[in-house]
Amino acid sequence: MKRRAFLASLGGAAAWPLAAGGQPAQRMRRVAVLSGFADVDRRDHIAAFTQALRTAGWSEGRNVLFDYRSAEGDPGRIRAFAAELAAMTPDVVFAMSTPALAAMREVTRTIPIVFVNVGDPVESGFVASMAHPGGNITGFMSLESSLGGKWLEVLKEIAPNLARVLVLLNEENSVSRGLLRDIELGAPTLGVRVTAGQVRNEADIEPAISEFARDPDGGMIVLPDPATTVPRARIIALAQLHRLPSVQSFRYFAAGGGLLSYGTDDVDLYRQAASYIDQILRGAKAADLPVQTPIKYRLVINLKTAKALGLEIPPTLLARADEVIE
Predict the structure, then answer these.
(1) HSE-up of 71 (CA within 13 Å, CB side)?
(2) Are 42 and 100 in contact (CB under 8 A)?
(3) Which runs of E-coded beta strand occur in the chain?
(4) Same domain, 29 and 165
(5) Do both 57 and 28 map to the same domain?
(6) Torsions phi, psi of 250, nearest 5?
(7) Is 0.85 topped by the overall pTM?
(8) Coil, strand, or helix at residue 128?
(9) Are 318 and 292 within one domain?
(10) Does 185 lie in the same domain as 121?
């Protein structure tokens, strides 16, 4: 989704409503959007975000301009794009991922930043506290470290013979390190041994998975990071090849052939982020807007993949699923 496609997702400017109270904004505002993920992964999310802004009265070309950059998982590009966007002096930045937020924080401590798809922003040093973030950063957490244990539990429930689990992660991501710790804490209770598989780029994926898959009774947890989400098709193919039941947080993992996903309802998250963008454009300060924790989670199960792996989904797990892909 390059800038042209992103703007197309905004829809016709003439169809957008006026700002609250029927009055247009007094001057043109500028919103910078920085994504660390592949654009195809965020089309529904961006559509929800832009629709929420429409409802709030922000119209591309009438009272707001958008500058969109997507690094497609490339750390070098994301830093360069962050510097480029900061030089445009936008009114607010929408940072979509931990790498995007980290890159923007390096280049500005004054431009307001609203984030999504970030784990613990306090532990990562992005904000002073959840209730009073201070500085120029606020937003919406997409992960809590306790989610790591939930992934392990649901994987064990769906594959009772699971004795080993590969945690595929980018260890440079502080959120991933926290999730790994939580998985390791819960593993002994479930009788599972944990192996950390370091992935910095696509070339690291096949060696990590193939080496782990030499022994039986294995499964895989794929931690969210551009290094693991952008090449997800390769990860899913290798999981199927080696018959590894696998879980990840994003719905598109299960929709693309992964066994299951369990994570935040990201579409809802992006709608909420739009409300903070709107408030900042109307004069609110990021320091005064509390960081929000996830409130809605979705469990998605791919029955076709389960059958291919020879797994019988427990009825209790099916009953808890928000979506079943057949």
Answers:
(1) 30
(2) no
(3) 29-35, 64-70, 92-96, 113-118, 137-141, 164-169, 193-198, 218-222, 246-248, 260-264, 297-302, 323-325
(4) no
(5) yes
(6) -90, 140
(7) no
(8) coil
(9) no
(10) no
Rounded-to-integer distance, Cα 41 and Cα 260, Å: 16
Q: Identify the pLDDT of residue 1.
A: 44
Residues 31, 159, single domain; the answer is: no
Tokens (6 digits) for 149 = 């244990």
Which DSSP symbol is given to 293?
Answer: P
Give the whole-angstrom CA distance, residue 246 versus residue 317: 15
How far does CA 99 lie from the centroid of its chain? 11
Distance CA 11, CA 6 (A): 10
Q: How many domains does the chain have?
A: 2
Q: Are residues 89 and 155 in the same domain?
A: no
The three-state secondary structure class of 256 is coil
Segment 73-95 mean pLDDT? 92
The answer to whether 231 and 219 are in contact (CB under 8 A) is no
Which pLDDT does position 7 carry in this prediction?
46
Question: Do β-strands 297-302 and 260-264 pair in parallel, antiparallel, or remain unpaired?
Answer: antiparallel
Contact 10, 62 (CB under 8 A): no
- At residue 270, what are phi and psi to the nearest 5 degrees? -70, -35
| C-alpha pair distances (Å), 263 with each of 59, 124, 266, 273, 291 | 31, 20, 8, 17, 18
Longest dimension (CA), the chain: 66
Phi, psi of 210 (to 5 degrees): -65, -40
Q: Are residues 122 and 202 in the same domain?
A: no
Phi, psi of 79 (to 5 degrees): -70, -40
Pick the residue with more confidence: 259 or 228?
A: 259
Structure-block tokens of residue 201:
């780029």
Residue 234, classified by CB atoms within 10 Å of its CB into exposed (0-12), middle (13-18) or buried (19+), is: middle
**CATH number of the domain to which 232 belongs:** 3.40.50.2300
**Domain identity same for 217 and 155:** yes
pLDDT tens string 107-135: 999 999 999 988 889 988 899 999 999 99
Domain interval for residue 68: 3-143+265-296
